[in-house]
Amino acid sequence: MNGSPGAGVPLVTVDARMLHSTGIGTYLRALLPRVIVRLPEARFCLLGDPARLAAAGLPASERVSVREFRAGIYSPGEQPGLLLKTPRETRVFWAPHVNAPLAGPGRLLVTIHDVFYVDPPEGARARWDKALYLAAMLRGLRRRAEGVLCVSAFTRDEVLAKVGAFRCPLHVVSNGIDAAWFSRPSGPSPESRPYLVYVGNLKPHKNLPRTLAAFAAIAERVPHDFVLVGPGNAEALRRDVPPRVASRVRFLGLLDEARVKTYVAHAAGLVLASLYEGFGLPPLEAMALGVPALVGRAASLPEVCGDAALYCDPTSVSDIANALLRLLSDETERDRLRERGFVRARSLDWDTAADKACAVLRTLL
Known about the structure:
Layout: E1 11-15, H1 24-38, E2 43-48, H2 50-55, E3 64-68, H3 78-85, E4 90-95, E5 107-112, H4 128-144, E6 145-150, H5 153-162, E7 170-172, E8 195-199, H6 208-218, E9 225-229, H7 235-240, E10 249-253, H8 257-265, E11 269-272, H9 281-288, E12 293-296, H10 301-305, E13 310-312, H11 317-329, H12 331-346, H13 350-364
Parallel strand pairs: 1-2, 1-4, 2-3, 4-5, 5-6, 6-7, 8-9, 8-11, 9-10, 11-12, 12-13
Helix pairs in contact: 1-13, 6-11, 9-12
């Protein structure tokens, strides 16, 4: 509904345009409803697509209103649109990503998921115009932000090292796992053969060329296929898959959350040999379902996964290949990973994240 402002009740405006994206969308869908419930002393104005917000159950109370705002992420219309669409009575503006308004009403709270674009791994650089825009955003945020949420200690440290000190504290508010991930879906496996699964976009920093090369190196020694779930252009990756294993590598594209969960639940293991992650939810979601995970020993992944994942050197095809073999064949290790993974996944939840985010919001209100 589009409720009218309540006299004397502070307003929090949230950029909710990315609600249905992967990554940041997961963050918003999990955290935003919990924050709204935990802050009964505030009103909320959500900027985004009204139909999509309604489909996600937002708005769901008289304290929540919506303003239609469809400017593309990083588009020329983004900054002027944010300025025009933000209600003048906004007390706090919460940006879930660094494409935050550099001017406008309210105190600025921003969530930083990573600073990958500041110093990306080789071969993974953003387009020059996007890189310039994001660099300008970060410079502006250092001056304007009055609160910063970082999804991991790794991201906080990266911000300080590669961007510099902010005028406000940087709070570590870790992502969480929704309780639904601890319930295995009913029904049979979606595949007739055993398989490994990758969940995520197909961007260069995900290190998929090396991961696929490692799978090709062991394919004749295991019966498993490799299924990749997530958005992106798969054509270049397909061309690099050797013909002898091409029929055992499948790119499924973007699936709904229920189908993703089914694919993860029935997998022999989840693989994320990434070069860079600001957090990395898929391994934890696999752990919650009792599926062992193999991850790269890089960026935030050791912090997030602790002793509950099998690690590899993501820059070494041979090391990824050896780790894949161990993941699939060492039953003692698989049992250890399942046991520790479940405990690790239980230690991170969205309710705790919402409590911490609300504590920061209250200081700004």
